[in-house]
Amino acid sequence: MAPTFIPGSSYDIIVVGAGLAGLRATITAAQHGRKVLLCTKTTLCSGSSFYTQMDTLHCQGVLSQEDKAVFLADIENASQGMNDPYMNRYYVDHINDRIREFPQMGVDYQALPEPKLACFAKHPHALFSWTDWAKIRANARSILAGYPNVTVMERVDAASILTQAGAVSGMVLRQEQGRLLCRKEAPPPRL
Ligand SMILES: Cc1cc2nc3c(=O)[nH]c(=O)nc-3n(C[C@H](O)[C@H](O)[C@H](O)COP(=O)(O)OP(=O)(O)OC[C@H]3O[C@@H](n4cnc5c(N)ncnc54)[C@H](O)[C@@H]3O)c2cc1C
């Protein structure tokens, strides 16, 4: 079936995926006044970030300035040279700030009272957990509905990216009923 352009479906930014990364990107872009489409092939708050088969998910934060080096060594030890050192460093430098932003996305988290061993780490670090997937999803839905410049499409698969003159010009999105075509708007001129 040939793609159909849906009138009015022009966006500055199309975010693919509604896990933590997609939610963060959508809200940040919306706060900067961009017209955003958030699409996910499943539901809002899905993917590994909201893994419903687990009672709870944890995120490891750093305990202190000193813990940064210990945490970094834990990551490097676990990754055995397969991680990007820049990203490792970025994680330990920024993760606590990012966790504090979770409520902006509807993710109510709890800080565990004591540092704890988790996942790959050989040392205990600060742990933050979230659960109650239905409540988080309802929170996120209501937060996103507060942005008139955000459209959410669930059960829509990003099938391919269209390019023109080396730049992204649109995206083919596939629904069960057929295919939709969304065109990305040209960015506003720089002043
Ligand atoms: C079982 C499990 C347990 C984990 N536990 C932890 C933990 O305790 N602590 C921790 O820090 N990390 C954990 N991780 C890793 C962590 O969950 C991920 O690194 C993180 O959630 C990734 O976030 P994300 O937003 O990039 O992707 P995800 O949360 O995976 O979201 C991906 C999104 O993209 C959508 N999508 C994918 N393809 C398409 C497409 N073609 N079109 C449209 N939508 C699409 C999906 O539907 C989904 O919404 C765990 C991972 C797993 C699998």
Largest sheet: 4 strands, mixed
What is the CATH homology-level superfamily of the largest domain? FAD/NAD(P)-binding domain
Number of domains: 2
Bound molecules: flavin-adenine dinucleotide
Tell how many strands the DSSP assignment holds: 10
Instruction: Estimate the global geometry from the Cα principal axes.
Output: elongated
The Rg value, from CA coordinates, equals 19 Å
SSE ordering: EEHEEHHEEHEEEE
CATH class descriptor name of the largest domain: Alpha Beta
CATH topology of the largest domain: FAD/NAD(P)-binding domain
Low-confidence stretches: none
In whole angstroms, the N-to-C terminal distance is: 41 Å
Average pLDDT reading: 89
Explain what you see.
It contains 4 helices and 10 strands. It has 191 residues and is α/β, with parallel strands linked by helices. It folds into 2 domains: 113 residues, FAD/NAD(P)-binding domain; 75 residues, no CATH class. A hairpin with a 2-residue loop joins strand 8 and strand 9. Helix 2 crosses helix 3. The longest helix has 16 residues. The relative contact order is 0.22. The model has no long low-confidence stretch (mean pLDDT 89). The site of flavin-adenine dinucleotide (FAD) has 21 residues, from helix 1, strand 3, strand 4 and strand 8. The site of flavin-adenine dinucleotide has 21 residues, from helix 1, strand 3, strand 4 and strand 8.
